[in-house]
Amino acid sequence: MASILLTAPMQGWATPIEEVPDAVFSERMLGDGVAIDPTGDCLYAPCAGTVLTLLPSGHAITLATPEGAEILIHIGLDTVALGGRGFTPCVAVGDTVERGAPLIRFDLDLLVQEARAVVTPIVVVNPDRFSIVHAVSSELVAVGDPLMTLEPSDVVARRETNQDGATHERAVVVPLPHGIHARPAARLAATAKRFDADVTLASGDKTANVRSPIALLALAIRHNETIIVTTAGADAATALAAICDLIESGMDESAEAPARAPVAAPVPARPAVDGALTGVTAAPGLAIGRARWFRPADIVVPKQGECIAVEEARFDAAVTTLSTRFADRARTATGPERAIVEAHAAMLDDPMLHETTRSGIARGESAGHAWRAAIRPQADALRTSSDPRLAERADDMLDLERQLLALIAGVENTPLSFPPDTILLAEDLLPSHVLSLDRANIVGFCVERGGPTSHVAILAATMGLPALVAIGSPLNAVTDDTPVILDASEGLLRIDPDGDTLVATQVRIVQAQVRRTEALARAGEPCRMADGTRIEAFANLGALGDAHLAVENGAEGSGLLRTEFLFLERDAAPTVAEQTADYQAIADALDGRPLIVRLLDIGGDKPASYLPMAPEENPALGLRGIRVGLAHPQILEDQVRAILSVKPAGQCRIMVPMIASLDELRAVRAVVDRVAAEIGIVDRVPVGVMIETPAAAVTADLIAAEADFLSVGTNDLTQYTLAMDRGNAAVASGIDGLHPAVLRLIAQTCKGGAAHGRWTGVCGGLASDPLAVPILIGLDVTELSSAPSLVPEIKALVATLTMEACRAHAAAALQCGSAAEVRSLAREFTA
């Protein structure tokens, strides 16, 4: 690596760093450097680089050179106390500057009068990586004069040079539909940390260390953007392949939008209805209550610290405590909540935030002040992003800021407690606020800001809590204790409704509650139609907690256990013992009820970092589902062995995902039979097939000759039938499983299965849709596997139906010309 020349960033008298009248600098606590006693009024860039930090008070800035050297320039001593007076920044965090560009203008007269000193240290804050080999001191310098020359330290030179002495570089087109936001950044950082290599990512003229999720977020990388990944070090080649493959895989962004709660567009302008405010639906639902404001007080932290040792200890203790809390919550959380907690944990572990905070502490700042100064500019930079999803991720950083500050300041976060029937109003909410809501009393919330794809919106939908976001400033006119109706499904907040409206709404709520109560009361009964026809009401599971919920809600078994929870978000595949323990726990929770375990369904939108998969132009049509298992035989065999080890034998059945041909089923059947023989299982192990491709549906009669059962995955079957990617927002609104083409394929599947005496179930989204259930039964579906919480309602609905009526209804649906026509017909049928 070539030497780095730093030129004088201001005119004045160059002074040895040890002569600066502040021990933090003179004793090189922050690093080595030179100081200048200025005679001008502007600070200029001493090199080309990126603005890494710019303190809110404007008195200090850190630049990162393209080679990785980090240069702190601190104008004057104790100038933080001026609170920004006398400083006018010319750049912002994330800006790329050329040598000689103006960085900060300052009022030299003001500094001379009010600051302890105006001497300005220029410090290399990562001396473990770069050493000063030449420095000018004790002489006058002009802006642009040579000041210091840096070279890589020997240790770093050895680390950054791989065995053949070369770096590796590759261009990558980012396929992530929402760019690199918090969770992808966290996964990239975690992957980079596994290798002995430096990994940088360049977007345009901006670069970031991949180990820093915060730095990655600041790049604001968007969908289809071309970026450059560069690696150097002992593991450079393998690190490059791993990072690029992970990016090109598309990663797993399923938590970005809650299941069955489509991202809502801004509510279009509409006439005022009884003073109703309009917002964006974050989570659907209906609630009546009284408005009560939540206005969290800002956590006050002192600027000056007690001493460096005390403040570092406070910071370390707070980080350790919060890391432990994140780890504990991640172990028990599922779905979106777990993904959000893991993203926050990755940001907390960000080396850039730690280094910047410690630099502030070394300058005499308190731990809280240094932490806020480190993270707030990064959040502000995201907030101003043109990408709304990246702007929403600023909330995650502010949430992390607040959680750590609470620990540093000794202010514990407590559950948000309000009187019963509270509809919470707030300027904005953070994810940790939502997780601490008192669900017994808070029945919904509305926020002035926020967005429909924020983590707050995702959590609200997951919790089933009606919520509106982006209402805007009109929300401020609502006063505490005002009666309101939150109709989140319609995007409305009705203010002080009249008596008739309140009564009508209460009737709607009571009717829904009565239906739910009655359904729960009968949930333990076998699922039968009004004419006595037996239909199995099963539940889809994703983890142990779902199994307990399914049993509580009367599920007669599980029609789908998604096993991806065991394989994703980890560095290596789970062992047979680990898998067996998890499957056994779920089987035990079901207390003997049937458990249909779907073999690993990853690839495409659900990659695993430890399985090498070449980049694919269209992952949805590539290596995914059972194709992954057949490509990695040991993964498949280990999973089969774990499933067959569950006791009692026979409770578990195996289901094969993404079958497109009979040959694939035969290959899996051979593995199952061989492993069963090795374990000593004599009886035939039931192996069924998921019908998710049109190919499987139209050849169902051939597949059913060798499969033990068929189960339709309507989500994938719909997207493949309609040629619409369910992850593509541009076409997502057109994806509806009640499209006549999809229904006809389901009918063909049931007919093919019946030809060989095989039953057909549905485990996709249609099984949870009350409008679809009568049609599915009329097509001869005999098993419905829905979301656990919906099982009572599905069973109650089935109890009102007759097979004769359902078959006539299904026949009519097959003659419709569109999904909209089918839904209109279905509403008339269930009315």
Descriptors:
831 residues; 8-stranded antiparallel beta sheet; 28 helices; 34 strands
Structure description:
With 831 residues, the protein is of the alpha/beta class. The chain is built from 28 helices and 34 strands. The chain has an 8-stranded antiparallel β-sheet. The chain has an 8-stranded mixed β-sheet with strand order 19-26-25-21-22-23-24-20.
Structure in a nutshell:
The protein has 831 residues and is α/β, with parallel strands linked by helices.
Shape: globular
Mean pLDDT: 82
Helical proportion, percent range: 25-40%
> What separation lies between the terminal Cα atoms?
75 Å
Total helical elements: 28
Q: Quick one: biggest sheet?
A: 8 strands, antiparallel
Secondary structure tally: strands: 34
Radius of gyration, taken over Cα atoms and rounded to an integer in Å: 31 Å
> In percent terms, what proportion of residues is strand?
15-25%
**Any low-confidence stretches, pLDDT <50, length ≥5?**
155-164, 253-273, 727-733
**Strand sequence of the main sheet, in spatial order?**
9-5-6-7-11-3-2-13
Structural class: alpha/beta
Summarize the topology.
Blueprint: E1 4-7, E2 12-16, H1 23-26, E3 32-38, E4 42-44, E5 49-54, E6 60-64, E7 70-74, E8 87-89, E9 96-97, E10 102-106, H2 108-114, E11 120-124, E12 130-135, E13 139-141, E14 146-152, H3 154-160, E15 168-173, H4 182-192, E16 198-203, E17 206-209, H5 213-218, E18 226-232, H6 236-248, E19 277-278, E20 280-283, E21 286-293, H7 308-332, H8 335-348, H9 351-362, H10 367-383, H11 388-409, E22 422-426, H12 431-435, E23 442-447, H13 455-463, E24 467-469, E25 483-487, E26 492-495, H14 499-521, E27 536-541, H15 544-552, E28 558-561, H16 564-567, H17 576-590, E29 595-598, H18 626-631, H19 633-644, E30 652-656, H20 662-679, E31 687-691, H21 694-698, H22 700-704, E32 710-712, H23 714-722, H24 740-754, E33 760-762, H25 773-778, E34 783-786, H26 791-798, H27 803-814, H28 819-830
Helix pairs in contact: 4-6, 4-8, 7-8, 7-11, 9-10, 10-11, 14-26, 15-17, 17-19, 19-20, 27-28
